[in-house]
Amino acid sequence: MSRTAVVTVAHGRHAHLAAQQRSLAASSEPADEHVVVALDDADLVRSGRSTVALAGTDLGLPLAAARNLGVSEALRRGADVLVFLDVDCLAGPTLVEGYRHAVEDGPSTVWSGPVTYLDPPPAGGYDLARLDALDSPHPARPAPTPGELVTGADPALFWSLSFACSADAWLRAGGFCEEYVGYGGEDTDFARVVVEAGVGMGWVGAARAYHQWHPVSRPPVEHVDDIVRNAEIFRGRWGESPMLGWLEEFERLGLVSRDEDGRWRRVERVPGPE
């Protein structure tokens, strides 16, 4: 049987990480390895709960590089099946097993699983034994039923919250582009790279994940600088801008502008009179 590693990048969210680890321990088929990458998180390193660590940069958190580092460690440990799980995600009971079967049956495909966004937890936290009862996958993504596989998936719908691939598919694609630093763009880029490498994309009904609630801002104005910078990196690589919904909302708010050639720029605010 293949050797499976779950790769999780963590920057804070220690309680979410602990809940994720409990959900993985309760899986129908536990992973052989859980590689936790502490990303600019000295507390996580000191606690001994991380596997490898990566420092931050002046531009922000190098999430793409952190994922690549986690995979390098997983491969060093002999993993054949690579499962990527966002630190906020709880693993459904059959997530690891479902991904393993899909990757073994389709080693030339990058597989994604449905993700349910959870409401705020009750006082005692989420009941990991009853996650299936909370199942309500995000409506903007495919949600095959447990036991169902869908191939030929639209790469534009790929997201990095939860996905898996074989070690061979990862090496063919070459991993995440490390030019991206901070929030946004690197997963959309990865889907393009996967397709360019001749690797397929699909969805796995059995690999269900549950995203733990946390406050968010819409649009994510705290990440506007990252998004503008990463959008321009993407445009330089692929000839078009990603994240247009966010960028256009930032434009409406007066935070960014778009040149005639399609280039997005951060608007420098000039302080007005008090």
The largest pleated sheet is described as: 8 strands, mixed
Show unreliable segments: 270-274
Radius of gyration: 19 Å
Helical proportion, percent range: 25-40%
Shape: globular
* CATH 2nd-level architecture of the largest domain: Alpha-Beta Complex
Could you give the order of the helices and strands? EHEHEHEEHEEEEHHEEHHEE
Q: How many angstroms does the end-to-end distance come to?
A: 68 Å
> Order of strands side by side in the largest beta sheet?
3-2-1-4-9-6-10-8
Tally the beta strands: 13
Give the domain tally.
2
Structural class: alpha/beta
Family: Belongs to the glycosyltransferase 2 family.
Protein name: Glycosyltransferase family 2 protein
Pathway: Cell wall biogenesis; cell wall polysaccharide biosynthesis
Organism: Nocardioides seonyuensis
